[in-house]
Task: structure prediction
Amino acid sequence: MVRKTRRNKNPNQAALDSLKAIRGLDRAAHFAAGGSLAEWRGRHTVTTDRKKRDSKRACRGRVRDY
Result:
């Protein structure tokens, strides 16, 4: 039986791992300085899919009360 070698899916895995470590240290420092989770996460911006929204409006048309 032939042995198969595993390949890394991501060639930049070492760089990603170091970024994760740095990010973890930044997070720990933020909370050590008394920061809250909401401040760490930041603002959540919701963007609408305009094409989907316009298509849905055009399809459904105007709602009428009879």
Q: What stands out?
A: The CA atoms of residues 51 and 57 lie 10 Å apart. The chain has a mean pLDDT of 84. Residues 12-42 form one domain.
